[in-house]
Amino acid sequence: MSVILYRYDGSPFGAKVESMLAVKRIPAAHVDVAPLLPRPELSELLGLGYRRIPVLAIGRNLYCDTSLIASVLERRFPTSGGYGTLFPKRRDGSTTDTGLVKAFAQFYADSALFPTAVPFVPWDKVPAAFLADRSKTLVEEQLQDGRQWLFDTETPGLADLSVFFVLNWARSLPGTSELFGDKVKFAKTLEWLRNVQKYIQSQEATLPKTEKISGKEAAQRIASAAAVEREKPLFDEKTATLLGVKHGEPVAVIPEDNSRDYPTKGLLVGLSDEEVVLEIKGKAGTFLCHFPRLRYAVVAGKAKEAKL
């Protein structure tokens, strides 16, 4: 099954998905795009209005937002097929609380922790205790009972990767040495950071060398993927009625944040509690584009206001 990741060097969320792919042991070709718009590899060739990176292509399906990508990778590449897992069992052998882990990853790591860092770049102006107070203190507390991973699992999972990508990105920036140099107060957190990094690197070492391809070649591969690689989306008629939308009709999907000026337009072909799916057209062909339901609005036709 063809897997292609659209990313760029320095993208923290791109690095998060790369770590997911490593832990899942899924080889993926990389398309390096520009850090800033425009990105014709996505907007023109695929017809994708979404402005954020990363975007993951599996077959002829395009997946947006790391929260959805995590769920999709676990579903489409199960442990029964020899792949790793983002939701490992607890050390006592019991199953992990997948809902709690997803909520932690999305609402703490992505929505609470990460935004505290972004407005303070350049980092030489950051109060030394700022990020520590909002991140390492929580991690340190979680690790106090001697567990190796945040949810006391057999191996690191989505919760670990979601916090790791923020802290690892932060410590790569200039002026953050004080944040990560307190070996007494945050000793367990620093050890945890090292252990997560070592685990990711060990999994990456088992994968083939990453293939770098152009946007044009990627679009051709995605467009020519076999029909079997297109997931058949679910469609909930009751939800559609509530939102004022219909199967097969034009809609726009709009992020409910500062990216509202970048809608993705297409035909509505899938709608469930987890995702909304559009059929979109670009110069390279027709694709299925998947967005999470949470934090994304669906606008019917030429409607002016978003349907939550």
Q: How is the topology of this model organized?
A:
Blueprint: E1 3-7, H1 12-24, E2 29-32, H2 40-43, E3 55-58, E4 61-64, H3 66-76, H4 98-117, H5 130-134, H6 136-142, H7 158-171, H8 187-204, H9 215-223, H10 237-243, E5 250-255, E6 264-271, E7 275-282, E8 285-292, E9 296-300
Parallel strand pairs: 1-2, 4-8
Antiparallel strand pairs: 1-3, 3-4, 5-6, 5-9, 6-7, 7-8
Helix pairs in contact: 1-3, 1-7, 1-8, 4-7
Brief digest:
The chain is an alpha+beta fold. It is built from ten helices and nine strands. Helix content is 35%, strand content 17%.
Number of helices: 10
Report the span from N to C terminus. Answer: 34 Å
Poorly predicted tracts of residues: 123-134, 303-308
Average residue pLDDT: 87
DSSP helix fraction? 25-40%
Task: Tell me the series of helices and strands, N- to C-terminal.
Answer: EHEHEEHHHHHHHHEEEEE
Instruction: Give the radius of gyration.
Output: 20 Å
Task: Provide the β-strand percentage band.
Answer: 15-25%
Q: Structural class from helices and strands?
A: alpha+beta
The best one-word shape is globular
**What is the β-strand count?**
9
Query: Main sheet, how many strands, which sense, barrel?
Result: 9 strands, mixed
Q: How do the strands line up in the largest sheet?
A: 2-1-3-4-8-7-6-5-9
Structure explained in plain terms:
The protein is of the alpha+beta class and 308 residues long. The protein has 10 helices and 9 strands. The chain has a 9-stranded mixed sheet with strand order 2-1-3-4-8-7-6-5-9. Strand 3 and strand 4 form a beta hairpin. Helix 1 packs parallel to helix 3 and helix 1 (12-24) crosses helix 8 (187-204). Mean pLDDT is 87; it is low at 123-134 and 303-308.
